[in-house]
Fold:
Amino acid sequence: MEKTWAIVSGGQYSPLRDLGDCEYIIACDRGYEYLRRQGVRPDLLVGDFDSYAGPLPEDVPRLSLPVEKDDTDTMAAIRHAVSNGCKRIYLYCALGGRLDHLLGNLQAAAYAAQRGVWVRVVDEENEILVFSGGSVTVPEREGYSLSVFALSDRCAGVSIRGTKYELEDVTVENNFPVGVSNQWRGTAEITVEQGVLAIIQSRM
Structure:
């Protein structure tokens, strides 16, 4: 069974769905407050804790980071997960709020995908799958749009089937949004041979 870890970031709060699928849970800074709110104990605390000033449990291991650092708290958590053999990451509370943090979290997800880790980013309005190499089936989801973006410079061998606007073995580049707001025609199948691809489902 592939290792699936959860990372709870400190962005805008959204309910933490499907935590039961994860065998290991990391709280990044204010992410600890979000887990505590749902009565969930993390396995690791990561961060400089500049956005959370409350008490922290003494019996949970901690990866402390300096305030002045190159990595964000979420990036440090993703590096830790990748280096420990994690193959799938559920990333929570990473999309809302500050735009710079949102983009940084997507870049961190791309870092993981380049190393063979699939990252699922979830909030109340969106679900993003970031991966490199392989095929994904996406069941039709009423009330949601379906978009595909290159997170690397280019993604080669991209095919999109089962949608209104289909593609077959094309190269998608990250400076032209060819895959925005597609529509399902049943179950979609999306493939990428090379590069980091993001599949975004957003509530309309």
Notes: The chain is about 15% helix and 40% strand. Helices lie at 31-37, 73-83, 99-114.
